[in-house]
Design goal:
This protein has about 220 residues and is α/β, with parallel strands linked by helices. The chain has 6 helices and 8 strands, in the order H-E-E-E-E-H-E-H-E-H-E-H-E-H. About 40% of the residues lie in helices and about 15% in strands.
């Protein structure tokens, strides 16, 4: 425990300049010491060097959250069986990439807002699977329709109010990554489905990118 003594005020009516200068010097030093102690006790997250977080994290669906094309490889209607698994009309097991539920849960619990940007034409079937997988509570925004992903993101920007530079996007197609990057979104190419490490690396990349951007603005 650090102990220090704050010099008391000089006696009332005592007019010696030397005494006043000595008291002011000690008083100033004590304030500096107090400020240092407060900064040392301040949690890292509340300091100015805390990592900047994205305001919206967006995911593609096919071959990003689940390993199939919803308009090609599975057939509705889908059913949630007693064993807790989802099956299509041919009794084929319909599932997602293994780490996806934990990724979504972790991001949700940390307060991130999540969205979907999918080009599939099977909007109803995609939403049905999201519901059966119990992911409805995770996604604040959904744009599911055919066409360029830039259109999806313009709609996401309008509905969320967030700037493109405050977003991260995960997608398995290079053309989508290239298009959306031009808007200013940080895009992450997904090779074998979304994983915890992929998302963590993306968050770190986002923070570093914004940190570098802030430094350039200062100069």
């Amino acid at each position: 425990m650090v102990r220090f003594h704050v010099a008391s005020l000089p006696p009332q009516g005592f007019r010696s300049p030397n005494v006043h200068r000595t008291w002011r010097g000690r008083h100033s030093a004590c304030h500096v010491l107090l400020r240092c102690l407060v900064l040392m006790a301040t949690p890292t997250a509340s300091r100015s060097d805390a990592p900047v977080k994205p305001k919206l994290i967006v995911f593609d669906l096919d071959y990003t959250l689940w390993p199939f094309w919803v308009d090609t490889h599975v057939d509705p209607p889908f059913t949630l069986a007693k064993d807790g698994k989802v099956y299509d009309s041919h009794r084929r097991h319909v599932t997602y990439y293994p780490q996806v539920p934990e990724v979504l849960q972790n991001l949700h619990s940390q307060g991130y807002q999540l969205g979907i940007a999918s080009r599939t034409s099977c909007r109803q079937e995609a939403n049905e699977l999201i519901h059966l997988f119990k992911w409805d509570r995770f996604f604040h925004f959904r744009e599911i329709f055919p066409g360029s992903k830039t259109t999806h993101f313009r709609k996401l920007q309008k509905s969320s109010g967030f700037e493109y530079e405050d977003m991260i996007f995960f997608d398995d197609e290079h053309r989508n990554v290239v298009e959306v990057e031009q808007l200013g979104v940080l895009c992450i190419f997904v090779e074998d489905g979304v994983t915890k490490s992929l998302v963590q690396n993306a968050l770190e990349q986002f923070a570093n990118k914004r940190k570098m951007s802030s430094k350039h603005k200062e100069f």
